[in-house]
Design a protein that fits this description.
There is one protein chain. By secondary structure, this protein is an alpha+beta fold. It contains 14 helices and 20 strands. The strands form 5 sheets. The chain has an 8-stranded mixed beta sheet, sandwiched between helices. A 5-stranded mixed β-barrel has the order 1-2-3-5-4. Strand 12 and strand 13 form a beta hairpin. The chain is elongated, with a radius of gyration of 29 Å.
């Protein structure tokens, strides 16, 4: 029998013994009056009542020490002969193990080493842990285990816990910023009959009640723009997005995204608002505008640059994407040893692959503008140059971390763009957009000039300087072998 099996057997035996003695190892309630942080700040000698998970246990005979952990932090609890009632000390010695949830009552005091602790007068087992915690000095070492058993990683690693506290602040600060600017938060469908709003392969499922194949949304964009048609002036949504495509350090298949839409504004005003929002979030969550992201030193506080999509690709690859063809682009991709997916490959995808090669050298922060019409079927054409659209992407550390544009509100132009996308789909491009006839009909009722913007949790991962999967509290994993 291995060590873990022996521990499990011993703990199950303790559960059975407690039940025979009329002790419930999993009671329904405990009246926790203080957090550990409050206990640490209380006056010495104060009576406190707290609860949490026992992280360590050192029984030295006439005195015992343990670390009790709750979400606010750790505090030492102490059991001592003549000061802790015998039945309480005895119960602790016999039945309590590392990993158990316990509730304690006692008085705060300072040990000889100067550590503020609780001298325990009462203890109650709140949840008996059958499985032992990971070895405390090394924690979870296997990468798959760390992500699959995130609850253990959070127990053993305070840095992981604090990362997700920051992530909550990240989304809340974004919400607070938009609300302060007069935007209204809304919710739109996550299941739809026609996915749209982005170039991505959707997940497909079946709606039993309607006997209809449906899709998980790849963007809330077309729903939110319907609200612009309805007359709402400023709306935003923070919600889950699902894209059935590749996984890497910057991409996941399901993640959280925010999109806002602002009537009577264009992409110039959108850029100003987005920049202000990024700076606000950084200060609120991290207290700084300076970050180390990959090999780049990023300062969100400096003047944001403007980058021309066409000119950058021309400068770095010698190709004018407004006058090129598929053969020339494929030859350049081969010359630069750029790997790409040949399934459904076309000129638009080829140009996109050239851009991904170029962007890696751009630190930012800044705005990428002047993208060809063929690459953004939902954005308005530039009045200065109808070959490009009024779209911007925020560039930080060699990647895009946000996209916005002046929204296309011409239903005839929109239908023509969808028709071009349909040709690409017919030729095998699974990421080309589907034609949403209902959305085009909505545009025919009239939508005011509007700017929109979307940002995913990739920005949070960048600010943390971590792979995005590390920044998801429960990333999708293959099932663990039994």
């Amino acid at each position: 029998m291995g060590r873990e099996e022996q521990i499990i057997e011993e703990r199950i035996k303790k559960i059975e013994e407690m039940k025979k003695e009329g002790i419930n190892p999993y009671p329904n309630h405990f009246d926790k009056k203080n957090s550990n942080e409050e206990c640490l700040k209380a006056k010495l000698g104060a009576k406190v009542k707290t609860a949490g998970r026992l992280i360590s246990k050192r029984d030295l005979g006439k005195i015992a020490f343990s670390k009790l952990r709750d979400f606010s932090g750790d505090i030492q609890i102490v059991f001592q002969d003549s000061k802790t009632p015998d039945n309480v000390f005895g119960f602790f010695k016999k039945y309590i193990d590392e990993g158990d949830f316990v509730g304690v009552e006692g008085e705060t005091f300072k040990t000889k080493t100067g550590e503020i602790s609780i001298l325990v007068k009462k203890i109650e087992l709140l949840s008996k842990a059958i499985l032992p915690l990971p070895e405390k000095f090394h924690g979870l070492q296997d990468e798959e285990d760390r992500l699959r058993k995130r609850y253990l990683e959070i127990i053993m690693n305070n840095e992981t816990k604090e990362l997700f506290v920051r992530k909550a602040k990240f989304w809340q600060s974004m919400r607070n910023f938009l609300l302060s600017k007069g935007f209204m938060e809304v919710e739109t469908p996550a299941i739809e009959s026609t996915p749209g709003g982005a170039e991505a392969k959707p997940f497909i499922t079946h709606h039993n009640a309607l006997n209809l194949d449906v899709y998980l949304r790849i963007s809330p964009e077309l729903w939110l723009k319907r609200l612009m048609v309805a007359g709402f002036p400023k709306v935003f949504e923070i919600g889950r997005i699902f894209r059935n495509e590749g996984m890497d350090a910057e991409h996941l298949q399901d993640y959280t995204q925010m999109e806002f839409y602002w009537a009577y504004a264009d992409y110039n005003e959108g850029m100003k608002l987005a920049e202000e929002m990024y700076k606000y979030i950084a200060k609120e969550v991290y207290g700084t505008l300076k970050f180390k992201i990959k090999e780049f030193d990023i300062d969100l506080g400096k003047k944001w640059e403007t980058y021309d999509f066409i000119e950058i690709i021309k400068k770095m690859t010698k190709i004018n994407i407004l006058k090129t063809n598929l053969k020339e682009v494929e030859a350049k991709l081969k010359e630069l040893d750029i790997k790409y997916d040949r399934k459904g490959f076309n000129l638009t995808r080829g140009i996109d692959n050239l851009w991904k090669y170029c962007r890696k050298k751009i630190g930012g922060p800044g705005f990428l503008i002047n993208v060809p019409v063929s690459m953004e079927p939902l954005a308005k054409r530039s009045e200065k140059n109808p070959e490009v659209v009024e779209r911007y992407q925020i560039l930080i550390a060699g990647s895009e971390v946000g996209k916005g544009f002046s929204e296309l509100n011409d239903p005839i132009d929109q239908m023509g763009r969808f028709a071009e996308q349909a040709k690409l789909r017919a030729a095998g491009d699974e990421e080309a957009q589907m034609t949403d006839y209902d959305f085009v009909k909505a545009l025919k009722y009239g939508m005011p000039p509007t700017t929109g913007f979307g940002i995913s949790e990739r920005l949070f991962a960048f600010l943390e300087n971590k792979p995005i999967r590390e920044c998801v509290i429960f990333p999708l994993m293959k099932p663990e072998e039994k």
